[in-house]
Design brief:
This protein is an alpha/beta fold. It has 21 helices and ten strands. Strand 9 (about 255-260), helix 9 (about 270-280) and strand 10 form a beta-alpha-beta unit. The longest helix has about 40 residues, at about 390-430.
């Protein structure tokens, strides 16, 4: 309801107006009366009405004089409706330049007056909406300046009264998690709803009359300015306040949220410090289980920004080749245990996940598959662009790995022979290097046991025996065609130990390398 003051030197006119007009139906409420312009001026300054219904002719200070004075004051800008006799009509017209909404001739017609009030109410509604939007834009701009330390003294001074002039401030970042596969339009609608819910929950539990300013941040996050005035019901403890808000919010929205609570600052001018500590908390997201990170906690903890050891990436690819889905879940469990064990930062964890994903995609391409056909392809490519909880991140990775495993199994069904042939070619070209079944399996993203079985099945000989056979065959050639010493030939064909070379040569050829060479010389 809009507030109305009735001003007329005749009491029966004021009482008549009260009873004649259905003020409430028109959107107004008469809150005060005055019998002359001077008294009305005091009431206007005190009550700050939205509308003043005033007679022109009054003692001490007439209606026109009152309107002139009020129109010059910035803090109060009520609308005016003049009621006057016919003889005052021209006089009343001069008041229009001061923004008088309308004037009504006496005797007052009920329908005419109520129609005027209804039109004015709609106009005030529209004006109020515009003012509210402008105020919101203005304060959001100030909030943006505050967190980057760019607000000027005047802006801060004007902003403080809207907050109740508190003496302590906190900046809190609230992330909405899990909105990965929605359309942009749907996410915008969800973010808008969550932002409104955050403001409502805080206002309700703190019993606030003033507006709670919620700032839109990037990537589905919100910034909220919390003052000491909000904490009265929580023994001035920010921790109790945040836990209560999070609990209440969980009853009103289905999305999981994460809170990052900045440090306390005594002056709004240095809110940037609280914002920056809340930002630092983002890197601790996956080390806290209750979804609330306080700056006071992270100051005593250290983070690691290095990725996982290379062995984990090879293990994932090995497990994909194996048939057991349980083994995949086991390795993912061990990876996430490693994240926690090493106190890895959010960025390092996401970077490690990203590397796992690209290793798998690369493997699919190597098998001449199309990784973009995976249902989870787009989701995992943009995983770093969205907010997800640790549990959600783990489930997304497991789903991706299991889906990739299915695709790789199908691809390998048609390319196993080709893959084994490539491995045999690799052995033939690199036998002189320090290679083993394990190292080759890692290079071709295969499980060593599986590779050994596959090689034996395909070529009828165990990997180790084939490698020794090739090395000894090449050693025989060198013994025939070169004058190299025995230890030099051993090194050339991949043996680091000459005695072992001699032993294997004798086992396969029933003769030592020296005897083999001497036998050839005797024939010549």
């Amino acid at each position: 309801m809009y507030k109305v003051i009735l001003v007329d030197d005749e009491i029966y006119v004021r009482k008549g107006l009260r009873s004649l007009i259905d003020w409430q139906e028109c959107g107004f409420e008469v809150v005060e009366e005055a019998s002359n312009g001077q008294q009305a001026l005091t009431v206007i300054r005190d009550v700050k009405p939205d509308l003043v219904v005033i007679d022109i002719r009054m003692p001490i200070l007439d209606g026109l004089g009152l309107i002139k004075i009020v129109s010059q004051e910035e803090e109060i800008q009520p609308k005016f409706i003049i009621i006057s006799g016919y003889s005052d009509f021209k006089y009343a017209q001069t008041a229009l330049k001061y923004g008088v909404h309308d004037f009504i001739l006496k005797p007052i017609d009920k329908d005419e007056m109520e129609q005027t009030l209804t039109v004015l109410s709609k106009s005030l509604n529209k004006q109020k909406t515009i003012q509210e939007k402008n105020r919101e834009i203005k304060y959001k701009e100030i909030m943006h300046k505050l967190i980057f330390g760019k607000a000027d003294e005047k802006e801060v001074t004007n902003y403080l009264p809207t907050l109740g002039n508190p003496k302590e401030f906190y900046y809190i970042i609230i992330e909405v998690n899990g909105l990965i596969n929605n359309t942009y339009e749907k996410n915008v609608a969800i973010y808008k709803n969550v932002g409104e819910k955050i403001a409502k929950v805080i206002r309700d539990i703190c019993d606030l009359k003033e507006k709670v300013w919620v700032q839109d941040l990037e990537q589905g996050s919100f910034g909220v300015l919390i003052t000491a005035n909000y904490l009265n019901r929580f023994q001035m403890k920010i921790g109790r306040f945040v836990h209560w808000v999070k609990e209440e919010l969980s009853h009103q929205i289905s999305e999981e949220v994460t809170f990052y609570v900045g440090s306390s600052v005594p002056d709004l001018r240095i809110l940037k410090e609280s914002y920056e500590t809340a930002q630092r908390g983002l890197q601790f997201k996956y080390l806290q289980k209750d979804g609330i990170i306080f700056s006071s906690d992270i100051n005593v903890k250290s983070l690691h920004y290095t990725e996982l050891d290379d062995s984990f990436y090879h293990l994932v690819l090995e497990k994909i080749v194996e048939e057991s889905s349980d083994s995949i879940r086991d390795i993912i469990d061990s990876i996430f245990e490693e994240f926690h064990k090493k106190s890895m930062a959010r960025s390092a964890i996401l970077s490690s996940i990203n590397r796992i994903v690209h290793s798998v995609l690369k493997f699919i391409k190597k098998l001449e598959g199309d990784p973009s056909q995976l249902d989870s392809f787009q989701t995992m490519l943009k995983i770093q662009e969205f907010n997800v909880t640790l549990v959600q991140l783990k489930e997304l990775l497991i789903h991706f790995i299991l889906e990739s495993k299915k695709e790789i199994t199908e691809l390998r069904r048609f390319s196993t022979q080709s893959e084994v042939y490539k491995i045999k070619q690799y052995i033939d070209s690199n036998y002189h290097e320090n290679i083993s079944l394990k190292s080759i399996a890692a290079k071709f993203y295969m499980n060593p046991v599986y590779l050994g079985q596959l090689f034996k099945k395909t070529y009828g000989i165990y990997f180790k025996d084939y490698l020794l056979q090739i090395r000894i065959t090449e050693a025989k050639r060198l013994l025939r065609q070169s004058e190299n010493r025995i230890y030099e030939i051993a090194e050339c064909v991949g043996f680091n130990n000459t005695d072992y070379f001699v032993t294997i040569f004798g086992k396969l050829e029933n003769i030592t390398p020296s005897e083999y060479r001497n036998h050839l010389k005797r024939k010549v």
